[in-house]
Design goal:
Layout: H1 2-46, H2 49-55, H3 59-78, H4 83-93, H5 102-127, H6 131-180, H7 185-195, H8 199-212, H9 217-226, H10 231-246, H11 250-309
Helix pairs in contact: 3-5, 4-5, 4-6, 5-6, 6-7, 6-11, 7-8, 8-9, 9-10, 10-11
Amino acid sequence: MISLILPLGFVMIFAALFLVFASVGGIHKERAGVGRSIAVLEALTAAPEEMTRELESGFTDRVLFPLLARAQRMGRRLTPEDASERIREKLEKAGNPFGWTVERVMAGKVVGFAAALVISLVVSLILGLGFLPMLGFVVIASLAGYLAPNLYLHQQTYNRTEQVGRALPDAIDLLTISVESGLGFDASCAQVARNTDGPLSEEFARMLQEMQIGRGRSEALRSMADRSDLPDLRSFVSAMVQADAFGIPVGQVLRVQSSEIRVKRRQWAEEMAQKVPVKILVPLIFCILPCLFIAVLGPAGITMMNNFSGKL
């Protein structure tokens, strides 16, 4: 019995000593950890303003911008080498929307593809679609997300072209009046840029700025035509470049261009008016005529059915 008590006593003594030393070490470690935390807080409060500004940056700076940078790098790898030039041309024709650059368009394609893929998968699982319908839906949605920036730029280009086409006849009339009153072509363009609004005014202002930095008038005019898909603007620029090259009086050329574009505008209005009957035919057949038949022939049909069924 004594032989068992002595080893048990030694074990208990060593266990007690171990617990004492462990608790003392834990206290020291806890104090050391508290000391480190206090030191970090003191360092942060005493740090320069630049460092604290970096540490206090918001969610956008810490998460969204790095993700956008990674998406830009991935989009640059996935697109061909000449894709950046094509995107730059689309941005020029769309009027360079605020915040849109070549890199952001590429990143938007990657982000749109990933977001459309995830959303289409979730929607397919919620609706319980089969494998083939889910595959087709996911593929179409992913392609739509990838092409979404291009579709946006295409719509912006179309809207801008329409605005330029509506403002071009009045701008040419103002140019003609200004030149015939004694102003030069550059001063007349400045009058157009100053007294009109919209994309065409911005184009004339940009043309004047390019001429001020040393570009020739013909090059600036051709650049303005390249930034638009409007045939009338290209025709006007071609006529002005030829007049500048051959020494033809600018006022005479502007008068001819003004009359021609007025005729084209009248022809375009007549063309749109001729298209109205064809466009109204579909809603007339499928929407208006059925309602008219129901309102006119409905009571007669009900009366005939009652008479044939023997009801009075």
